[in-house]
Structures are given as structure tokens and as C-alpha cells.
Amino acid sequence: MKFIALLLLPLVFGADPQPCCTRTKFTTSLVELGGYLDPVSNIPTPVDFTATVYYDYDNKMLRADRDMPLAADTMRRVTVITDFNKACNATYIATSKIGSASRSFSVNTWKIAMPNFFIKMSMTKDHCIPFSESTWGTVNKVVTEINYMFMDFKPSVPERIFDLPDACNGHQPGTGAGVGRRSVMKSMFLP
């Protein structure tokens, strides 16, 4: 019996890792570097943004507060709240080590193919925390390539982060109403 177990050991440990699930809620800082090729002028345009991302899987919500550069060394904060429910089909690529020989951690890298677009995402092997993501392909006839680095990961989101600010167009000031499924899930029985 021990002989059979020893024969099966390489099969078990040699298999590709299963897709992991990150925390159902998290907050992270995100650096976005890359660019796109303008389809009309054929001029490459750089993309360089920082953002704070709030993710709530249970409510299928994502919020990104992005600092966008304007003229004369000024920045403007843009907030995008996304209500989504889309599954993905990830394919395992490899496990890699990040860091030096004495201080490193392992990441599993996955690839997600979409029509005319690809995503490559690396998550920490032990805790499934997002580490980096690369996207490339064509969106609305624009060739794009962007790399993302995740930093300051926190396994939670602020309580009312998905409530719309009063300044949003079409929003009733002072109501604090949510968006998407979150607003549907509110009940007269809950505060």
C-alpha cells in the first residue's frame, strides 16, 4: 500500500494549482502603467495613474478612486463605481518567486482570454492576495497594454464606500442611496 502511495505522490504534487479565491472584500492601492495606440493619429499615448480600489465580491461591487493628471501639475480625482457579475475562466501559467534568495514569496500566475483581449494576473501562492496584473489587446479598435501593481492590501472595505456622493449627476442629495445590487438589498427592516 505504501508503494502505491509513493507512486501517486508525484501526481499529486506535480499537478497545477487550483484557481484561488482572494478575500471577498478588500481595499488596495493600485499603480497603472502602460499605454495605447491612438487609432486615428497612430500616436502612442502613455497611461500613468494611481488609484485606490475597493472590492466587494459578495455584493459584486468595485469602486476605483483614480487620480488623473491635468495641465499645470494639477490632479483631479475621478471615482468609478462598477456593479458587475461576471465569471472568468483562468488558465494556470506558472508559479514564480519574487524577491531575493533569502527573502522571497511565491506567486501563481493565471491567464484569462477574452475576445481580442488578455489578462495575466499574479496572486500570492499562500494567501491569494493580488500582486500584479497585465492587460493587452484591442478595445474599441484601440490597441492597449497596461500593467497594474497592487499595494497596501487590506482585507476589508469601509462600510459605506459604495454609497453615491451627493455631487453625482442624477442622485438625490442627502439620500445616501447605494447603487446596483447594494441598493436593491437594502431593506426597510435594516438600518
UniProtKB/TrEMBL annotation:
GO molecular function, one term: calcium ion binding
GO biological process: cell-matrix adhesion
Alphabetic keyword roster: Signal
Protein's UniProt keywords contain Signal: yes
Domain of life of the native organism: Eukaryota
Signal peptide coordinates: 1-17
Protein name as annotated: Uncharacterized protein
GO cellular component: extracellular region; lysosome
